Amino acid sequence: MLELAFKGGKTYWGWIVALLAIIGAAFGVYLWQLKFGLGITGLSRDVSWGFYIANFTYLVGVAAGGVMVVLPYYLHDYKAYGKVTILGEFLAIASIVMCLSFVIVDLGQPTRIFNTLLYPSPNSILFFDIVVLQGYLFLNIIIGWNVLEAERNNDHYQFWVKPLIYLSIPWAISIHTVTAFLYCGLPGRGFWMTAILAPRFLSSAFAAGPSLLILLCLFIRHFTKFDPGREQIQSLAKTVAYAICINVFFFLCEVFVAFYSNIPEHMDHIKYLFVGLHGHSLMVPWMWTSMILMVVGIILVVNPVTRKNENILVIACIVIIFGTWIDKALGMIAGGFVPNPLHQVNEYWPTGPEAMISLGVYAVGALVLTVLYKIAVSVKEEIRG
Amino acid sequence: MESSRRRFLKLAGISAVGLGTAPALNAFAASGGHDAAQPYVKKGARALRAKQWAMVIDTRRFHSAKDLEPMIEACNKSHNIPTKITNTDHEIKWIWEAEFHHAFPTKASKFLSEEIEHKSFLVLCNHCENPSCVRACPTKATFKRESDGIVLMDFHRCIGCRFCMAACPFGARSFNFRDPRDFIPEDDKNLEFPTRMKGVVEKCNFCAERLAVGKEPACVEASDGAIIFGDLYDPHSHVREVLKENYTIRRKQQLGTEPSVYYIV
């Protein structure tokens, strides 16, 4: 099937070349980072994780979000999603590729990455994160490829794929749960120390992932002969509606617990994010923007009139993607590290090189996604023709 | 009858595999040498030993930030700390000074004695008995040495993921954001201790390299008796005697990491 990725028009190849150019430029910056060290980023002794790990966390969510089409189709026999499961699975593959890349660019000594396998340490959540992320990557490659190839040959997929599909559903939940456990098991980090961090991550994931999928479906319908279908898009939008409401609800639960209990270690991080702390308020406009975007998103996807209008739905999805990104990527990291363990405020903001390397990783993801979607859509077009 | 007999044999077989392999392997390993089947690190003849090293800092003996300088300088020189780094974001700190409400954020009363409120306190790695950084490390590059409880770093194994920095509730860990070698003052270079490279985490090691040759940690030596060092589990150690006689506090004790650095306030 891979040959399908090599048959494309001028726009397709133009896009590929543009992505390669961005990747090349970003790789140059990455070489600089390798030579100089992580000092070219905005990271510090106090805020020791930043943009890379923030985006990593967010994209684990997007990857897990793919399960929102797989689960209804395979567990509830919701036939309409048969057309789009492959899009969910391929989106998951591209997201995991980005996640792993973000982890690698974040390492101080990337050439030693295999030390994690040479000295496996099951006491470290990072060890489990590597295991579940790679497992999810392989599951989706095997499942997606087999099911699509069977569809192309007008055949039923291999019998042994079915158990893998069932396995992939709880596995999707596991990747984001383990990612949340990276944060919420750390003593002395009051902002993360909450049992609903994993549920929060999942709710935000099931809002952001399907939102992105809706945008991709609409894009595919507009630019190719394959229509993922109105019903499918509307069903996804309902998933987004529930998930984004739950996400905001969970956040309000956190606010209640922190402020009614009145415990400074828990309040101070939220204060830093939303009103500033000791005169430091870099995150304040961002966090309020995030809240406004998520509330606007809720209004647009919960209200059936706006949800059913696909033009408005596009806006709703974009709003939700950005709202959840600020909340979970930017705010989650900055909020957790500020104030620091000695209760000093040292703010963080990504630098240009850091943003460029991140853009490069996103370009890698876009490239993987483009190639995979090109194949999937070509197969769907073939079947239709 | 038949089935239970077969089941017994099967179980016995499985157990034999489990129980049998370890002694067999040991015997195999031992057959080559004499009686020492397991490799181990031999302690130096002069090495200081303890079950869990601990430190008591008598803060009554220090009155200003200036009083703390000798200890900090001794450590910096002893461990090739790149003190010429001016960007505070990239600082490497093993032992440094902090005000009371930073060193003990959960213990700072609203109305503190004036002296304590403005005094500086030494802070360093606590060599916790339940270190959360060791739990977080994905490569065992940071580990708790079983022989004496020191939380150590293997600079050559560290991949620079900085999970330990997120896990440490005391901010005791530093990351080499750039090559530190250009920032070590020329006169301070200690050729007996390794310099580090960029991209790895480091922190106080309770002067494991000095203990191995029978010397107390550099800061203890420079403290003129204000820092007491010894074995926490030896009831007759100097540390235990001081702990018996004085009321001490520890940083963020409520987190359950069991810090091994005590403060007399």
How does this model look, in words?
The complex is a heterodimer of chains A (385) and B (265). With 385 residues, chain A is mostly helical. Chain A has helices at 10-36, 51-65, 67-75, 85-106, 115-118, 125-152, 161-184, 197-223, 230-261, 264-274, 284-302, 304-308, 310-337, 352-384. In chain A, helix 2 packs across helix 13 (310-337), helix 4 runs antiparallel to helix 14 and helix 8 runs antiparallel to helix 13. Chain B folds into 2 domains: 1-38, no CATH class; 53-264, 2-Layer Sandwich (Alpha-Beta Plaits), CATH 3.30.70. Mean pLDDT of chain B is 88; it is low at 13-33. At the A-B interface, helix 5 and helix 6 of A face helix 3, helix 5, helix 6 and strand 6 of B.
Query: Any low-confidence stretches of chain B, pLDDT <50, length ≥5?
Result: 13-33
Largest sheet, spatial ordering of strands of chain B: 8-1-10-9
According to CATH, what is the topology of chain A?
Formate dehydrogenase/DMSO reductase fold
Residues in helix, % of chain A: over 70%
> For this structure, what is the CATH class of chain A?
Mainly Alpha
What is the end-to-end distance of chain B?
A: 75 Å
Topology, number of strands of chain B: 10
Largest interface: A-B, 44 and 51 residues
Using only C-alpha atoms, the radius of gyration of chain A works out to: 21 Å
| Morphology call of chain B | globular
Write the H/E string of chain B, N to C: HEHEHHEHEEHEEHHEHEE
Number of domains of chain A: 1
Number of helices of chain A: 14
SS content category of chain A: mainly alpha
CATH topological fold name of the largest domain in chain B = Alpha-Beta Plaits
